[in-house]
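In this section we walk through a basic example: taking a raw amino acid sequence and producing a predicted 3D structure, encoded as discrete structure tokens. The instruction is simple. Fold the sequence below.
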Amino acid sequence: MVKYLDNNNSGFAAWNANRSAQKKSPRGGFLWWFIIFMAVWWALGVMFGKNQTVVAPDTNQEAVVDVSNVPVSEISSDKITANIQGLRISNIDLRDFQANAKSTDTVKLLSGENDFAEIGVVGIGTTAPTADTVWKAEGNTYTWHNVDGVVFNRTVSVDNYVITVNDEIKNNSKKDFSFAPYAKIRRGNDTFSSAGVYSGLVVYVNGDVEHDDWRALAKKPRAYTTTNGFAGFADQYWETIADIDAPDQTIRAQKYGEQYQSEINTRAVTVAANESANIKTYLYAGPRDSSALKSAETQINGIGDTIDYGWFWFLAMPMLWLINAINAIVMNYGVAIIIMTILLRLLMWPLTRKSYTSMAAMQKMQPEMQRIQKLYANDKQRLQIEMMKLYQTHKTSPMSGCLPMLIQIPIFFALYKALIISVQMRNAHFLWISDLAVMDPYFILPILMGASMWLQQRLQSGATKSADKNDVAAQTQRAMRWMPIIFTIMFAWMPAGLVLYWTMSNLFGIAQMYIIKRNMEK
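The resulting token sequence is shown next.
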């Protein structure tokens, strides 16, 4: 297809010029409208996608607090277990997920030496528990009181992947005191396990989810104000998010040494003498899975929007749903990808048939096109008219062969995004592949994809060759022969599930082309 479009003396150039001369809108303008649409979409995202930073971040280095004397207890549910050490929560074990396909160990969040989530209050006019405070523990309830007669009762519970910390503050004194709630998450980055997908800071500010990757956060601290929100960090498959159920929040995030920290501070709560107040804080520690996040959204508003499906989210979301639905029947994600590929190709069958028919007609037109080009080489206007008649006679258009390619581009990127963010795809087995979310360790699928691409290209381009070294079409055709090799190298390090899709799409396309050519010969 490309060899006809790139030739300045081709029928496409004549056809397009003739339509312009007749003051008709060329159908080739579809590509330009598509490019303009995407450019405008990007510009709007840049203009309106970020909230204004309105508070200055704290650039002081925090002192390291020794919590070795604080007892450690454990809280658990059917989904997670976690360590509770005073104000801090760490070593969160996701019981349903293996660390990798070859290990029986489970995934652990905030498990580094200095990784933790800390939830507490700052006392104004009185003292409050700090990170090194030793509480009195009874089951999942913890109690501490200060010298002014203020009693702090903390209850920690867990439901699915959400840990709820409920702080009851009883002011048994004769004075009013205020307490400013805060929640912070500190951890190291994890850029090495997040290939091709966003990871780093996640905040929810005034109804919008904001992102900043590790590198950007290391260069410049972030700070926001919001009526309500949350803050935390996301990896390729997991995220830890803290949310305080209180208005008027200030969110800060920055790098401390080798650690990264997000912190939420809210407006102080005044507890009158002989009165009490409750402060509730939620901590989500689990997979970036739509169903898990939807369940958590009943407690943490907006957390369901933290999954980044990319530009083509409207395709990625239904494709991911379809793969999961098929897998629920066949019980294998590799087979589910194959079935989904076939369904997509069948859906595009009418368009593909029209494209292949048009390209076959253009191959048959080549001798006549070359004759017309030589005959009217010095009469451009007559050349345009004759080329237009030729296309009308064969009832074809140069652009008709490009539509399937344009449709495949968003499908490819949407599926790529769906595969690399799908927690279910992680550690999914298929034949010799132990994890469809990472590269094929033996490079078998990329080689098969390259071979199928070469065969499809050969069938599609035909056997027409030109001995003229100055022939642009011939030069383009020779250059296109390198594409299977280039794509094989590119796909060698892509997720095996994506390469499986592309390979099956090529094979199905070859079968389609064979059927269409046979019907045309008949």
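Looking at the output, two observations stand out. The first strand starts at residue 73 and ends at 76. The chain has two domains: 2-24+316-521, 77-308. In the next section we compare this with other chains.
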